[in-house]
Fold this protein.
Amino acid sequence: MKIMYSTGATARGGRNGRVKSENGILDLQVRMPKALGGANDEYANPEMLFAAGYAACFDSALNRVIKLSKIATGETSVTASVSLGQIENGAFGLAVALHANIPQVSIEEAQQLIEKAHQVCPYSNATRGNIAITLTVSNNEAVMQA
C-alpha cells in the first residue's frame, strides 16, 4: 500500500479515560455507556468515535463515486450505527449499519452508488469479512435495504 496520510491517537484509561489525537485537535474523555454499566451517556465512547469516522469516510467515498459517475445529486448524508455485541468464546465484536441519503436520484441509482462506495471506502475495505455491515439508502422519498 502506498501511504498517503497517517495520524495517531493515544488512549489512557481505556473506556473510562481519555483519548487524544497526536495533533491535540481531538481530546475527549471517554466513558463506558450506560448500556454497558456506565453511569450515563454523556461522554464519547469507542463505538461513537468509530461511527463518526466511518460515516465521514463513507460519505467522502460516496461523493467520489458520484463525481466519477458524473451523476447530479443533492447533498448526501451518511449515518453509521455501530453495535457492540458478544461473539464466540465470550469475545466481543462489532456490527455496522450504514444509511446513505442521496437526493435527486432514483432509489435504484442510490443503491448502485452506495454499493460502489462500499467497494471504495477505506473503512469498508478494512472491515470487509470481519464484521456484519448492512447498507440502506434513501433519496428523500423511500428507504431500501441494499
